[in-house]
Write a structure and sequence with these properties.
It is built from three helices and four strands. With 112 residues, it is α+β, with helices and mostly antiparallel strands. Strand 2 and strand 3 form a beta hairpin.
């Protein structure tokens, strides 16, 4: 079945001080679980460890595609997903969920 309306999602996770490694252990299981349950597209997840240049605080970015608009709602009903999401909450200071929509802008390189 083709992915008719995948939803590209960028999640920013800001773990509490001292919880970065505990959080990452859960994050490593996140996409494989979503994938096993058929909730995401075959596009592999990309995860970045980021450091705020001003505060030096470490955080994580996760980029993946839900299969469709209903996948994230369905995920909340599945015990396998909730077994990851529920323990994540207490480890986080903040989390941002962003749905990404492409913007088609043609950028020409400057010629010297």
């Amino acid at each position: 079945m083709a992915n008719e309306n995948p939803v590209t999602t960028l999640v920013t996770y800001r773990p509490k001080e001292g919880e970065q490694e505990n959080f990452f252990k859960l994050l490593e299981k996140h996409w494989p679980t979503l994938n096993q349950l058929g909730l995401v597209t075959s596009q592999p997840v990309t995860i970045w460890r980021a450091t705020d240049k001003r505060t030096k605080r470490e955080y994580w970015l996760e980029l993946f595609q839900w299969k469709d608009e209903s996948s994230s709602t369905l995920a909340h009903q599945l015990p396998e997903v909730m077994a990851i999401w529920e323990p994540m909450g207490p480890l986080l200071e903040d989390m941002q969920l962003a749905k990404l929509d492409p913007v088609n802008i043609k950028v020409e390189p400057e010629h010297s």
